[in-house]
Amino acid sequence: MFTEASSLDISSEAIIEKMGRYGVGPQLIAYEAELDEATVTWISKYVFLCEKAGKKILFHDVRGADSYAANSVTDRRVLLRKLLKHAGVNVPKARIVKSLNAAKRARKAFGGTLSLWSTSASAKNINIGKVSSERRLERELEKHLETNSSVLTEEHIEGSVYRVMVVGDKVVAALSRRPATLIGDGNSTIQELIEIKNQARDLNPCYRNKPIRFGRNTESDMQERGLTVDSILSEGDSFEVRSSLALAAGAEFVDATDDLTPALEEIAIQAVASIPGLEVASVDVVISSKGNDAVPYVLDVSCDPNIAVYHYPGEGKQSNIAQQIWKHAAASI
Asked: Sign (positive/negative) of CA torsion 265, 268, 271, 273?
């Protein structure tokens, strides 16, 4: 029995058409379940029931076999860090602060740059990376300490960041994130390249309604290179429109599975294994560029990974994460 949500069609057009009624990740998993002759019943936008051979699996978003306790830990930054450290997983240095002065001391101890996180799931979510100026630190702390009793400060580690997808005890794919960047073709102007890029983004379920726009430094960056919006970029030449890594600012995920190293895979698997009951997760890992040794550190573990970015990357090969999740969940019943 095929449901309206997938109808055995996961083209980007079909996914986009149904995004208002069904989550993208759930659509992808439901499709794989139906291919495996399971019956899918939708309970809500993100909750669906799969039945096969008298067995049932209830999914909430991409979670079907995970325990509630495991899922709750990934929402609590302090608890997550404790479990990771207990398992011997490298994590950035951190301090919980309750005042601006304490945050300034942490910033100094961490080399001048830090990240800010919520200390509990009940607090208003905070996830701010790379706070390097004292002025910005004052602004962010003043804002967040009005509604939160404390903030977790973490050492910012410079290096290459990967989002590694783990299903069960296996790494199945990895992505890296790239800021809004144009690649010249020798014929199109910068303005035309932006329009081409935005047309492609509008057809991608992950980047739809997130067009590339000029930032406050774009024009000055163009002037430094002697460029205007009417300049034609040479074939293969690149121009970074914005430096932000936010998807809403035009950034995109690119496939990096072939860049995985044994050390990177090992720490991602170790991070997920440190949380008993967690079966599916994305792990953000940074490979430190400080010194001669490429040391990996776990930045975050998410029990609600956006699997669509692996299916529809901005560049590179697609990875069928939904199939891996369905097979793993079906094998557990």
From this structure: negative
